[in-house]
Fold:
Amino acid sequence: MPDRGGGPPGPRMRVGRPSRRTRTLLMTVGVLAVLAIAFVMFAGFWTDWLWYRSVHYSSVFTTTLWTKIGLFFVFALLMAAAIGVNIYFAHRLRPPLSAMSVEQQSLDRYRMGIAPYKKWSLLAICSLVGLIAGASASSQWRTWLLWVNATQFGTKDPQFHMDVAFYAFDLPWYRFLLSFGFAAVVLSLFAAALVHYLYGGLRITSPGSRATAAATGHLSVLLGLFVSLKAVAYWLDRYSLAVKAGNLKSSNWTGLRYVDANAYLPAKTILFAIAIICALLFFATLWRRTWSLPLIGFGLMVLSAILIGGLYPAIVQKFQVQPNEAAKETPYIQKNIDATRKAYGIDNTKVTEYSGTSTSAKQTLRDDADTTASVRLLDPNVVSPTFQQLQQTKSYYAFPSTLDVDRYTVAGQEQDTVVGLRELNVKGIPQQNWINDHFKYTHGYGVVAAKGTSVQSNGSPDFTESDLPAKGELGDYEQRIYYGEQTKQYSIVGDSSTKEIDYTDDNGEKSFTYTGNSGVALKNPVTRAAYAVAFGEPQIFYSGAIGSDSKILYNRTPKERVEAVAPWLTIDGDVYPAVVNHRIVWIVDAYTTSNGYPYSSRTTLGDTTADSLTNGQRAVLAQQNQVNYIRNSVKATVDAYTGEVTLYQWDKADPVLKTWMKAFPGTVQPKSAISSELMAHLRYPQDLFKVQRQLLTKYHVTEASTFYSGSEVWQVPDDPAAKTGKSVPPYYLSLKMPGQSSEAFSLTTTFTPNRRDNLGAFMAVDADATSSDYGAIRLLKLPSNTTVSGPQQVQSLFNSDPDVAEKIRLLKGGDSTVEYGNLLTVPLDGGLLYVEPVYVRGAGTNYPLLKKVLVHYGDSTAFENTLGQALDKVFGVNGGTSTSPPAGTTTPPANSTVAQALDDAQKAYDAGQKALKAGDWQAYGVAQKDLADALKRAKDAENQAQKQG
Structure:
C-alpha cells in the first residue's frame, strides 16, 4: 500500500519464524515428552504384570484386563456408532437451502466454517463420546463377570418368585445396559437435533413449519426409543422394589411394604403399558408426519407418572396403611425378617431363655468356675508393650499394638495363647538410608507366644515361645518374616553381594541372603527402569547394589496380597499369624458379599465392624461398603517367608463364590486341600461376628408383631475399659455354654436392652474350625425385667467399691498407672461371671504387668492378686475341688500372707529399679533390704503352710 503521507516508506514489521534448529529442538522435546508419558503408563502396566506372574496369579490379571478392554471397546464402539449414525442421517436428511430464511442465513457461516472439516469433526465427536462411554463401561467388569457366570441361589423371593441370582447378578447388569441405552439415545437426540437445526431441518424463528418431514421422522424415532427404554425401566422397577431401601422401623429396611405391593407395583405395570403405547405413537410419525398424537401420549405418560406413580401411593399410605400400619405391614415385615436372617447366616441361631441368677450352692459355683471356662487373663489389646519391652531385643523389631489369640498345645494340653510376630520396624533402624532401609534391614524374626490363662508371679507373660532366635513349644520352623502386617516398604534381596542383617545375638550380627521363591527379578534393565518410575526411586535403575540375582519384594502385607489376587473378596480387618507345618503363615478371612438379596436389610460394613479396637489398632472392614448378604466363603494364607498366597474354598454352598470361581477358574483351592495342621488354627472371623451381632440386636426377634413394636431391641454396649465411646470388641474365649459337655473355643459378646445398661443377652459362636458345631450361634436371652448388671454397670461397681478404690489408689502410688484389661463375661450355673484383669505400669518399667483380678458374680465383687483368690472370695469359699493351681498365676501363693509378701517384694523391686536408674544408691539399698525382708516373709509363710498341711 502506498504511503499516503508522502514520506518515504517506513520499515516493515516481519514476524520471524523459529529457526530450523529451534523447530527441531521443540519437536524433539515434544517427542521425548510423549515417550516419557508412554513409558510411565507402560511402567504401571508392566510392573503389575510382573507382580501377578511372580505370585502365580497371572490369570487374575489377564482376565480382569481383557474383560476391561472388551467392555471398553464394545461399548465405546456402540456409543460412537450410535452418535455417528444419527449425525450422518441428520446430515443426509437435510433440506435444500435454495430458499434460505434469515435464520438460515445467520447459520450459514457456521456451515461454511465446518464444511472442510466435516469428517474430522464427526470422527472427533464420536471418538470423544466413545472414549467416555468405554471408560465408564470398563469399570463394570465385576457386574459383567457376575452376570455371565451367574450361579443360581436355589432360593426364590416371596413376591415375584424369581431366584435370588436374578437380583444379585442379572438385575445390576440390566440396569447398566438401561443406563447406557438412555445415555446413547439422549446424546443421539441432542446431536441429531443440533445437525437438523444447523442445516435447516429444524427452525425456531422462521414462519411456517418448524420441522421438515425427514427431521420429524428421525427425531420421533429417537424419542420413541427413549420412551421404549422408559417402559423397560418401569418394568425393571417392579423387581427393584424387592431390593429397594425403605424406612419402616429402620433406615436400612429393604424390600416391598404394603404400599409397594398394592400401589407402586400396579402403578409401575400401568406406566409400563402407557409407555409402550406412547412409544408406538412416536414411531407412527414415520407415516403420519405429525407430532400431535405422540405429544398427547407423552403428556399422558407424564401425568400418569405423577398421579399413578406418586399421588396414588401417597393416598394409599395415608388412608389405608397409617390407620392400621401394624396389621398392614405384618406380612412384609415377616418376609424381611426371614430374608435378613438367612442372608446374614443367623437363621439357625439357637436362643435359650436364661435366668441370669443362680440357685446353686457356693461350693458348686466355685467348682464349676474352674471347669466352665479357661478365663484368659492376658489381654492381647493391652500387653503389646510388655511383649515389646521383654522380647523386642532390637529397636528395628516391633510387635503390633494389638496381639492375636490362637490355640496351641502346650505340655500335651490345648490352651488359648496370645501370639505376636517380631516384625521389622523401619523407624527403629539405627541409621536410616536407602541401602539400610531396602537392602540391609529386610525382615523380622520369630514368633513370641504366651499362655493366655496364666502369668508369672511378677505379672509378666508366661512365654511359651520367646528369645531370638525364638525357642520354646512351637518346635522348628522358618522364623524369618518377609511378609507381615507392619512390612509396608519394598526390599531388594537375593544377591549375595549385598548381605541382609538376619539377627543379632550374644555372638554378634548374623547375615543372610534371601533364597525364597518370591519377588520380581531385576536383571532386565527395562524392568529396573519400570520399577524406578513406578516407585519414584531412580536409584533402582542405576544402583550398583543391585546384582543379577536381585529381586524386589513389595505388596508385602497379607491384606493387600489377598486383595490383589482376589479383588472380588472383602478382607477381614484382623489378620493373624500361626505356625503351620514348620512355617509362619498369615491366616486371612475373606468374604463374598452382595447388595442384591431381596427383602434383606442392608448394613454398612465400616460402621458395623467398628469398635474400640479399630481406632488406629485394627483395620475397619470396607468402610463405605453397603451389603445385605455376606459369607465367610474363603480362608486364605500368606506365607511369611515366601509371600505365597493360597485361597481355600470354605463355604462350599455360597453361590457368589461359585460365580467368582467360574470367572477366575483355578484360583481357589477346594476345602479338602486344607491340611489338618492349618485347620487347627482356623477360627470364626471377628468382622463377620460383629456384622451378625449388630443384626441380631433387632433380628433375634422372629415374629413380625414383636419386631414392629420394637420392645425387644438390643444394643451392643460400649467398651467400659475404653474412653472412645465405641462398641466393646468381641472376645475369643474357651468356655462351656449351657447345653455343651465341654469347653469350646468361642467368640463372645454381650447385649444390653436399648438405652439401658443392664444385661439383655449373651452371645457366643463356636469358633473352632475343627469342631462339628463350628459357626453355631448360641444366644442366652435374659428376662426383660432382669436386673443383672451389664458391662458398664459392672465397671461402675468396680470403680465405686470402697475397697477396690483404695487398692487401686495404692497401685497408683509412685507415679504408676493402672490399666483395665478385657472385661470377660462367662455364663455360670444360671448367672453371669465377670472377670477383668488389672494391669499396672510401674514408674520404672513403663509396660503393663498383671497385678490384680476383678471378679463379679451376682451381688458380690472381689479384687485379689489372682483369679483363684478372687473366685474364692466372691463365692465365699476357701477354694474349689480342682487339684490344678488357680488360674492367673504359675506360682500361686499358699495363702494371703504369702500373697501380700510377694506383692511387697514386687513393690520393693520396682522401687529399687527406679532408684538405680536415678543413681540414688541410698534408696536402692533400702529397697534391696525391703525386698529381702519380703521374700523371707513369703518363704516362712509357705513353710508354715506346708507344715500345717
The chain is about 45% helix and 20% strand. The chain has six domains: 59-204, 212-343, 345-374+694-885, 375-481+488-555, 556-682, 893-949.
